[in-house]
Amino acid sequence: MNVNTISNDRPENPAYYDSLINETEAAKFLGYTVRALQNWRVRGGGPDFVKVSSRSIRYRRRDLISWAESLLVANTSQFAGS
Q: Do residues 60 and 17 touch, judged by C-beta distance below 8 A?
């Protein structure tokens, strides 16, 4: 995961964090592939998402940041694998 993408260039406007972005933008924001997001949606363990319709998925940046922060560990022995 590219943590620098998440921590840098955060606008002060709260709407930035709550606006909906598509899976391509979400994948780029996190530094993962669209396929990884798709797999997490099916298998679980990924960030929360908004299912607008059966073929339209969106993410909030706030949820992407929250998900990434929930995975933070101080050392490898803390990783339990989710």
A: yes
Quickly state the pLDDT bin for 13 (edges 50, 70, 90). Answer: confident
Domain spans, the chain: 23-72
The pLDDT tens digits of the residues spanning 50-68 come to: 999 999 999 999 999 999 9
- How many Å apart are CA 61 and CA 43, to the nearest integer? 21
From residue 52, give the alpha-carbon distance in Å to each of 21, 56, 59: 11, 5, 10
Distance CA 8, CA 58 (A): 22
DSSP letter at 2 equals -
